[in-house]
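retry 2 of 3: previous attempt timed out while embedding zinc ion. Reduced batch size to 1 and resubmitted. Inputs unchanged:
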Amino acid sequence: MLRLILTAVICVAAVVLVVTGRAEGAPQQKPPPLETSGAAPSATVEPALPAVSHSDPEAPYGVRLPVITPKMRAYITTRRILYLVGTLYYYLLLWLILRTGLSARLRRNAEQAGKQRLLQLVFYYVGYKLILFAASFPLDFYSGYAIEHSYGLSSQSFAGWMGDNAKSLIVDLGTTIPVLYLLYWLIGYSPRKWPLILWGASIPIIAAAIFAQPLIIDPIFNKFTPLAPGSLHDRIHALAAQSGIPNAPILVSDVSKQTNTTNAYVNGIGSSARIVLWDTLLAGKNKMTDDQIVAIVGHEMGHYVLKHIYWGFLETVGGLLFVFPLLKWAYEGVVRKKGAVWQLTGPDDFAAIPALMMVFTIISFIGSPVYNGMSRRVEHQADEYGLTVTRNPKAMAEAFVALSEQNLSDPDPPKLITFWLGSHPPLKERIEYALSHCPEYGCGEK
Ligand SMILES: [Zn+2]
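retry 2 succeeded.
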């Protein structure tokens, strides 16, 4: 019953999101934390509509709003549908793995591997992930490779794309198995208080994960090099000094081998904290002007100086205090109700992992407005900081126009989409906010 109610909630919410149209739905495959642009990746800029003249009332200070081409509209719609289909298909797969008894069979096979629980979990989870990987491959290929290529957003080879997928799978196994082992051990050790103990344990684990992400995980996928010497380098480092962070590492990631889209982000804590620019900003067909890049760096410096990664960590830890008891209630409820049919022995049975994933994903989806609302708040603060430190509202507005057009990102999604799924304020809002500072800092003409 619980599962039905939660599934119904998610279906209704998803359908509402789709019918409101114009959604920027699908999350990026590997979204960097606190990236500058919205969720969608990028494209060649081919404005099919006539460019808006600078004297147009909608182009204050010579900055026009992003041109929504038929190509952009088609991409946004495709992504929206893929988001819906992908989400529902994922739930269907999890349900099928449970309902057909496949999960119980995987656990029985894993038990043959030996008496050690960790060994059993490794065997179970590897089998489970391989089944999911194979079953979702056609959709993943279409969503992650075919669509990106057909819209000119990626020129990565199939071998390269498969290699990244294989790496993601290995990273998932390496990071998820220890967490699941701890969780299932706790469920057995303290059936009543495990959410609270898990919450306490999650604090150092999350801190370590944030610290290790740029040092261990990111280099598996990309190379990071210091920004090359030159006038842009000097301007950015002068801006860092002015912001009181002269030693902040500013690195360039070679994402152009994976995508043509543009972005930048901040991640890490303590000595691993860094500002990262995608190399697609600096060269290639989507190269931005130095002023626009400096504006984007100003936004990222806002995240860095205002310690948004630390606030994000505290918010996550605070949120988990509510999420874990809810997870216990929902997960154990499902296992109690369906355990016999799905051949589960109890909440500490590894065969119940698909049910755990199902419940956790649904709770995350329901909690999205809270999480994304907090994210939009810090993104706005970073814009505000960037404007204060670079004093160039026009360059920031132009950078947002470029992000929208290059990344085929809806500049003005419906309010419900933004409320539920928007990690950043709509680009149209950000452009207007930047331009509202023109009287203060000056924006040239008008
Ligand atoms: Zn940001």
